[in-house]
Predict the 3D structure of the following.
Amino acid sequence: MGIEQKLAAGAENPAPQRAKFREMKDGTAEDWALIAGHFRTFAGGVAGRVLEHLRLLDGDFGGFPVDRLEHSLQTATRAYRDGRDEQYVVMALLHDIGDTLGSFNHPDVAAAILKPFVREELHWICQHHGHFQGYYYFHYLGMDRESREQFRGSPHFEACAEFCEKYDQAAFDPDYQSESLEFFEPMVHRVMARPLATLYSLGEPEDAPADTAEGAE
Ligand SMILES: [Fe+2]
Ligand SMILES: [Fe+2]
């Protein structure tokens, strides 16, 4: 490659810019403008990363009649076919995504991922579904199937019980014709395109569609 070609390539692919501080307390406005720019691009890819992680559940049966990806697809498909809105369907799809990293508290992991993007009721359902799902099997393992009763006073109790009864506990049928993950991907991208609330107000991800609060109540 000649010198002119190298210069041209360098202009197209300049060395990555990095903040100059070695300790955060020495940071400058210039450093943080640079980091904020990167954050907007990175945060815009969250839906893609979540979908990639969801695929880790493929082939993970854990003794169940269907693997965890099929269970997720089946839960979401049942909610979708029952006329639930997009935020609800995405919550249903992702409700067990925490199984890989949060084997002892998987509802917390999924709820934390969903929290900025769904209404409070759906966050609550996701975070508490472990107790409510336990109604269907805790008694077989020496645990209290009435564990969900501690939440009886919550305004979301019935909604969570309904999620588990209609969709979650019902989603272990190997013969059910679920929609594919590809079917749900655009919904995940729409719901996760823009946070409804976040601590980090560094601007919106680029290319975020204008209307992403679809389905919010
Ligand atoms: Fe679960
Ligand atoms: Fe589940």
